[in-house]
Amino acid sequence: MADALIGSAAAPLQFIRDHTALLAPPLVPEIRLYQASEITPIWQATEDALDEMGLPPPFWAFAWAGGQALARWLLDTPEMVLGKRVLDFGSGSGLSGIAAAMAGAAQVTANEIDHVAAAAIKLNAEVNNVGLDILIEDLVGGSCVWDVILAGDVCYEQQPAARIVGWLREMARDVPVYLGDPNRTYLPKDGLEQVAQYSVQTTREIEDTDVRNARVWRVLPD
Ligand SMILES: C[S@@+](CC[C@H](N)C(=O)[O-])C[C@H]1O[C@@H](n2cnc3c(N)ncnc32)[C@H](O)[C@@H]1O
């Protein structure tokens, strides 16, 4: 299955279409995404094979609880991004960026380091009739050229979380930065201000529970 990921530039698009279903995340029924489902359990099926090929696991195939919370909050409080240039850092499926575009953002950059995720974001943006700029680059350490920054569910590994949150705090000196998170292990214990809270239905393929309590936090500068 994972062999389809190597080869032509079209291969990731075909892989995504072949191994996911078009589904709405439970907390955000307005948006449809190419997602893994019970009948397309690609996390277990592909993680090892992708790892052997030096590719990351298919984070893009799930609407993570933190991203669902961010997306719900943006659709319900569109004034947070209306007319603004928005960065969706670690965009995955593109969920939060798509919500920002639907909420009226002037321009949305969906950012990833995984080129398969970038293909998923392209497909998901098309299906939801929104335009996103897709940027495959590690932006951590760079300067801020946006009005608002979003980051959904990025605190799942110790060192990357520390590096990412450190950079988000730097960005928070200049612009509002919002983090969606279901209390992951490496979420900082302080320097965050809660702006919303949701009960989010998730899948046992990636979580150890069916429902997670996810919050939208404003990241405070150092
Ligand atoms: C758990 S997923 C969350 C995806 C999405 N934000 C959501 O909430 O559904 C985390 C994503 O962050 C991306 N990521 C990790 N480190 C990154 C970095 N330095 N720059 C950009 N993306 C990164 C991963 O590739 C992955 O797709």
Describe the structure in your own words.
With 222 residues, the protein is of the alpha/beta class. The protein has a single domain, classed as Rossmann fold. The chain has six helices and nine strands, in the order αββααβαβαββαβββ. Strand 3, helix 4 and strand 4 form a beta-alpha-beta unit. The site of S-adenosylmethionine has 26 residues, from helix 3, helix 4 and strand 4.
Annotation keywords:
single chain, 222 residues, Rossmann fold, 6 helices, 9 strands, globular, disordered N terminus
Structure, briefly:
This protein is α/β, with parallel strands linked by helices and 222 residues long.
Whole-number tally of structural domains:
1
The total of helices stands at 6
Give the CATH H-level superfamily.
Vaccinia Virus protein VP39
Strand order of the largest sheet: 5-4-3-6-7-9-8
Major sheet summary line? 7 strands, mixed
Strand content: 15-25%
Mind telling me the C-alpha Rg? 16 Å
Termini separation comes to 45 Å
Shape type: globular
Low-pLDDT regions = 1-7
CATH topology: Rossmann fold
CATH C-level label: Alpha Beta
